[in-house]
């Protein structure tokens, strides 16, 4: 790859002593690692039934924002171009707007601004969308698993949350956090009756609705293949309302993209179970307690925070490069001997 021949200056912690990195982050399967997910809190104000048991709540510590910033800064110096803030619920963290502002001051190896996104349940978004946009947030994704208020309350186990989320989506659109994406995790017999309703929602609200196949990442381990509503089934059921036409998506993009046949309304489908996209994966994750996870289904964490406490940025960068080289080739959902990951999704960060 051309980047193997290019020397890129990466500066040490004091910004005075340059160190040379021969290439941006590339794993042993020749996949460029350009996308970083950072969980800035393990806390959440929702207790979605497919995610949390509802009894344990947060299990891992939150770090000072300055530590997350240092981690991101070093990784940007290694080739990260996109940063997504997750949780838990990231809008619960005090100082999140200022953190976005500090991220927005960073530049990629090509001298460009970072693509800074945030995934939220939307409950607090109405008051924060404009300040986040002003600070430098590029895009926002709202998790919303029903467009029916009663069903929404049963899923989230939070009463009166539906209107807050709708207000948050409207505020994000008004602030220009485009495209506003709305993620829905589908489960058979639970909210799969919302497929067509979400199609109508995408058209009426001018947002991108993305359906996500239910993965074995929940806290109370209830997943089974029978619960999964697959990409093909979503397309068939949406066609009962109006057929979809597939459009181009980037090679490393997780979602297959579609528009309705009249061109109004976009639907994305993320199908890691029925149509895995591991071969194009460009992501690594940092958990709220400062561990690197190279895959959602990893069986172990890599203690970035511990290394950071002991070494300068060059030491941290070398550690990150070593961890990326251990990134798994793929997940093994549905295969004999499959083991669920050592953490559930809420404790990893989306």
List keywords for this structure.
350 residues; two-stranded antiparallel sheet; TIM Barrel; alpha/beta; twelve-stranded mixed beta sheet; globular; disordered N terminus
Task: Please summarize what this structure is.
Helices cover 27% and strands 19% of the residues. It is α/β, with parallel strands linked by helices. The chain has a single domain (24-347), classed as Aldolase class I (TIM Barrel, Alpha-Beta Barrel), CATH 3.20.20.
Description:
With 350 residues, this protein is an alpha/beta fold. It has a single domain, classed as TIM Barrel (Alpha-Beta Barrel), CATH 3.20.20. It contains 9 helices and 14 strands. The chain has helices spanning 65-76, 96-104, 125-135, 149-156, 162-175, 195-205, 231-239, 304-310, 313-324, and strands at residues 8-11, 18-21, 35-39, 82-86, 115-120, 139-143, 181-186, 208-213, 244-247, 255-260, 266-270, 283-286, 291-293, 302-303. The strands form 2 sheets. It has a 12-stranded mixed β-sheet with strand order 9-10-11-8-7-6-5-4-3-12-13-14. A hairpin with a 5-residue loop joins β10 (255-260) and β11. α2 (96-104) runs parallel beside α3 and α3 runs parallel beside α5. The longest helix is centred in the middle third of the chain and has 14 residues, at 162-175. The radius of gyration is 20 Å and the shape is globular. The chain starts with 7 loop residues before the first strand and ends in a 26-residue tail after the last helix. Mean pLDDT is 86; it is low at 1-22.
